[in-house]
Amino acid sequence: MVQNTKAKFEKERQTVLKALMKASKECEGSLKTEYTKFQATHDKFCIDKAPHTQNFKDLFSKFEVEKEKLIVQYEQQKGEDLSF
User: Fold this and answer.
1) What is the DSSP code string of 11-48?
2) What's the confidence (pLDDT) of residue 83?
3) Per-residue pLDDT tens digits for 58-75
4) What PANTHER family does this protein's entry cite (predicted)?
5) Burial (0-12, 13-18, 19+ Cβ within 10 Å), 69
6) What are the respective helix, strand and coil percentages of the chain, to the nearest 5?
7) 3-class DSSP state for residue 84?
């Protein structure tokens, strides 16, 4: 009877082990697939981001130049107002 129980337990253990291994392989496959999709999306985002980043830098640079011009004008005007 103990041998029967041991054999039954071992058979069930093997069945559970096989099911876990199968699920693990399926999960690993799904993770690889999703990672590949993520990597492709990430790569596309990085490629698309570069021109937008450059446009932002250019715009910001123009803003800084205009800001400096306005500061100079303000300082000149302030100096003219004080000389009266």
Assistant:
1) HHHHHHHHHHHHHHHHHHHHHHHHHHHHHHHHHHHHHH
2) 62
3) 998 999 999 999 999 988
4) DNA LIGASE-LIKE PROTEIN
5) exposed
6) 95, 0, 5
7) coil
Q: What is the pTM of this model?
A: 0.48
Q: What average pLDDT is seen over the chain?
A: 88
Any idea how long the chain is? 84
CA–CA gap between residue 36 and residue 29 (Å, rounded): 11
Q: What is the share, in percent, of the chain residues with pLDDT greater than 70? A: 95
As given in the structure block, the two tokens for residue 72 are 């100079």
Buried b (16+ CB within 10 A) or exposed e, 22-57: eeeeeeeeeeeeeeeeeeeeeeeeeeeeeeeeeeee
Average pLDDT on 17-37 reads 94
